[in-house]
Amino acid sequence: MRLLVVEDDKDLNRQIVTALENAGYAVDKAFDGEEGLYLGETEPYDAVILDLGLPKVDGVAVLQGWRRAGKTMPVLILTARDRWSDKVSGFDAGADDYVVKPFHIEELLARVRALLRRAAGHATSELICGPVRLDTRASRVVVDGNPVKLTSHEYRLLAYLMHHQGRVVSRTELVEHLYDQDFDRDSNTIEVFVGRLRKKLGVEVIETVRGLGYIAAAPAKV
Ligand code: CA
After folding, report:
1. 51 Cα–ligand 1 center, Å
2. For 142-195, what is each residue's pLDDT tens digit?
3. What mean pLDDT is predicted for residues 90-99?
């Protein structure tokens, strides 16, 4: 899952980005409305955290710009405590959720998880695919009850496929959603990661669809 953080407060931006990265997401960052607007229009994010008080272009205008451009990713807005009217204009502009500053980072992480799973049509924070269970709260994976240790890239790959299970995901889509913009992206590495992930899981839940990509699906019962 790849996220965008638009926040002009440098310390807060860094704090949010670090927490999200530690939780296993690929994260891009912008420090003003203009940069945020551009990134949100041109890059495919799974969710965005957007401050409303931003230099150059304010947050509400940024959000309106994305929605006008047909961008439907979930957007969580950050608002100041006493500005209830900000929340209203944020929701009217197309926000999906909000967090009031100052906030606990754990609450922000929980709300991001909820937005991501709702966008993918899941009701709980645990994703299940046959014998594989992925706990998005703890970033943990269990196969037949046994914990499996994955690197952050392997986890991200599995989480993306499981959020979209039953649908074919192309290698290009994976590259776009697993790495941040500064990463040296190479779609050949995806194949390597899929190979390693399959070996670690030890069960057939990731199928290759020749020429199209990969699909996470529960193995057929014998
Ligand atoms: Ca601000």
Report:
1. 6
2. 999 999 999 988 999 999 999 999 999 999 999 999 998 887 777 778 999 999
3. 93
Locate 195 and state its tokens.
């190979």
Q: What's the CA-to-centroid distance between 98 and ligand 1, angstroms? A: 14
Cα-to-centroid distance, 117 and ligand 1 (Å)? 27
Q: Are residues 52 and 27 in contact, defined by beta-carbon separation less than 8 angstroms?
A: no
> What does the alpha-carbon distance between residue 11 and residue 14 come to, in Å, rounded to a whole number?
5
Q: How far is the CA of 136 from the centre of ligand 1 (A)?
A: 29
Please tell us whether the domain made up of 126-216 is placed in CATH 1.20.120.420.
no
Q: Residue 50: which H helix or E strand, with range?
A: strand 47-51
Q: Is the pLDDT of residue 82 over 80?
A: no
CA pair distance 188, 175, nearest whole angstrom: 9
Residue given tokens 């891009």 in the structure block: 28
Query: 């695919």: which residue's tokens?
Result: 129
What does the domain layout of the chain look like in residue ranges? 2-119, 126-216
User: Rounded to two decimals, what is the model's pTM?
Assistant: 0.90
Residue 35 falls in which region: left (phi positive, over 0), alpha (psi -120 to 50) or beta:
alpha
CATH of domain 2-119: 3.40.50.2300
Reply yes or no on whether the pLDDT at 124 is more than 90: no
Instruction: Report whether pLDDT(19) > 60.
Output: yes
